[in-house]
Write a structure and sequence with these properties.
β3 and β4 form a beta hairpin. It is built from two helices and four strands, in the order βαβαββ. The protein has one domain: Translation Initiation Factor IF3. The longest helix is centred in the middle third of the chain and has 12 residues. GO terms for molecular function: transferase activity. Keywords: Transferase.
């Protein structure tokens, strides 16, 4: 999936990936896609839940060897 920006949240534990995601998405334009790279297992639940709560669009994830990429579209 093509992203407009990448947020490296690897090595961060809950709630920091969500905190960084929230900060980064505020700097982006509506319709842009953010790739969040995270290795915290909680991100798999936290990121979709954050999107639902904030009205942003969770586009899915792609598993890598050491981390997972989560894709969020700013609404």
């Amino acid at each position: 999936m093509q992203a407009d920006a990448v947020l490296d949240a690897r090595g961060l534990l809950c709630p920091m990936p969500i905190v960084k995601l929230s900060q980064k998405i505020k700097t982006m334009d509506s319709g842009q896609v953010l790739e969040v790279q995270a290795d915290d297992k909680g991100a798999a639940v936290d990121i979709p839940a954050w999107c639902q709560k904030t009205g942003n669009i969770y586009l899915g994830s792609e598993a890598g060897s050491n981390y997972t990429s989560y894709y969020v579209k700013k609404s």
